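Reminder: ligand-aware prediction takes two inputs, not one.
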Amino acid sequence: MPTFPERLQQLDVNERALLTLLRYNGPATRQRLQEKTGLSSSSMHRLTGSLEQNGLISQMGADLSGGGRRPALYGIGKNAGLLVGVELSRTEVRILFCRPDLEPVEQIRFPLDAGYGPDETADKISCCMHEAMARQGVLPADIPGIGLGTVGSLDCARGIIRSSTGFLHEGWQDVPISGMLSERLDIPVHMDNGANLAVLAERLAGSGQGCGTLVCIHLGMGIRTGILSRGEILRFIGEQPDAFGHLSVDLNGTLCSCGNHGCMETFATLPAMAEILSKNTNAEKRMDIQSVGDLLETIDRQDEQHQHDRLQGGTRIGTKTIAQGDIHTAHPDNTTGLEMAARLDRAAAAFGVGLVNLVRMTNTRLVILSGPLVRRSGRFYRTAVASAQRLLQTNPEKPVRFERDGHMGEWAIATGAAAYVLDLFLKKKDGAS
Ligand SMILES: [Zn+2]
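Here is what comes back for the chain with zinc ion:
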């Protein structure tokens, strides 16, 4: 049998359309696929027959709806071949081998400490992948491509990380990382920014299944947003994943790194939190990022304590301060927990206003918020969502769901990267290579 990449390469336009339907809409009967594609019954028989023969689709039981003879359900062939997705972030690398339906087969991760410049990182990824391919019994020629999700200012078409701050090792400027990897592995590499790939993963195999439009927002050192509309990743000019982060919601707000005032990034990132939680204090030195995360968790614990006190009928609500020990480790002054919680709430509410703008603009019914800020602060998440939901009440017939961290969690980008390779094969225009 031809290799997995060869079988993908040989697909005609109808076969690609059918596989795309099954990937985005889940298993379906021939009848349903005919309705969706407008193809005749005989064409659909021929198509499903050839795709089933080469393993790209398989029968997944029978459709149980309706009576009488139960027609077969077709879905993406689980054993057609392996997909590979890599996430390269500032602090770690994740490598995923998965089936075409994105079910994981093998997951590898390693931290990127100060010893990892571009060459060392490419060597290590290549080494991990060679070992994994040996374990899985596949050769480079069996892998249709490597999806690479990464951060910073990117030239995705040429596979270059133009600039990225925050890597612990120097030298991550103008790095042709896709070329470095494909040279070492003899497999083509396709780069995109991580936010776009995370939203693709959630749409295909996570919380966003069945959604026409889906928005994923990652809150960490910055704000990265991925928007999927009708199966297509929305791309803005310049491909900046942080465009939403620089939407201003307060003209008199804090000065942002982009030169404007009151951008979303001045309310909803870890560095912004360091500043917001320190304001009006005499603290000379700003909190480091680890301390901000710890402090956010302390505020959450305080909330839980208040909740507990309330249930116990206690009277300390609203007056309790964070335990002194926590303040000394996490916060440089004696600001009470209540004051800090109020500042956190104001920032989260402002972020909620921006969220509503994005919801209205994209008409999405689902927003997934993820990243370290959301992961470490339940209060920030709840307040932002409550603020957004209050403003969305004016349109009650279109309810919007918010989710904390989605379904794919920390493997979202690597999973989306793997899925992206298949997208490139299936969505290519006829005549294009
Ligand atoms: Zn800005």
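Confidence is low (pLDDT under 50) at residues 315-334. The chain has three domains: 4-76, 83-201+411-426, 210-405. We will return to this case in the review session.
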